[in-house]
Design a protein that fits this description.
Blueprint (H helix, E strand, L loop, with lengths): L1 H13 L3 H14 L8 H25 L2 H27 L6 H12 L3 H13 L12 H23 L9 H10 L1 H15 L3 H34 L4 H29 L3 H12 L6 H8 L5 H32 L2
Length: about 325
Amino acid sequence: MEFLTDFLLRLLTQFQTPTLGFLIGGMLVAAMGSNLKIPNAVYQFIVFFLLMKIGLKGGIEIREADLAAMLLPGFFALVIGVVIVLAGSFFFSLLPGIKREDGFATAGLFGAVSASTLAAAIVLLEEDSIAFEAWVPALYPFMDIPALILAIVLANMHRQKQQGEQRKQINVWGIVKESLRGSALSALILGLALGLLTKPESVLTSFYEPLFRGFLSILMLVMGMEAYARLNEMRKVAHWYAAYAFVAPIIHGFMAFGLGYLAHIWVGFSPGGVILFAIIAASNSDISGPPTLRAGIPGANPSSYIGSSTSVGTPVAIVICIPLFIALAERVFSI
């Protein structure tokens, strides 16, 4: 009962934070039919900026980190990405009226990672003075890339079977390259490399850190507008997508929290790291994943997988999952 009370209090308190306030503000502006638009170039720059900052800080931390302690969370991240896609694909295969390609694409998108949710979680953990390893965001590609690859491979195998084609070799390396070329993942990996191989502390503290929260607020505004706009698309597809998008982030987060707890026991993974790991798993790709899946599964309907991710999945991950796993960690770790 105390846990539930703590979670509800955190949920109510979070509605006063700039992060959630701008997300809801974006939804309200879009609902009012406003002509407010954030140019796509500005949006892309903000995503680049946020992930570059996260990558730089992570790269600096990796320089001094115990690499052995990173191996187990990295392996768990890969496992979670694969399990999410397999479980999601199986779930959609049991439902009537669901096109298999749409199910694979939706599961793949929810196995991948949201840059906006990751950035929002980092800010909220810092506001609560909950420490975490700065290299935890580097787990992003360990979960993201395997999930996208597996979803595309499963969809292609299904298509070949349906069309009676001979089993063709699927270009897995091509999918990897397409994922790595995504704007979000490219920015994060570039930041990690620069943080690891150079000494960017001065530019990090003088430029990236002071502007990080301001740019995040604009990103949340855009995400809120996009979430509302995608609601119309959700109405055109089966309601099962909305149900999955609401429940799946919470289940995925609990799965990661459990594995993160094991990493805490075995290799000293911090409670803050466990929280952030759970939120990464709860998130669903909203930037780099959609174009990769559009190219890899062209037969899937974007209204189903992008609509469910943007209009339901991302708000659930930010609004519900972040306070949920912070409250859970306070009970489990007594932080």
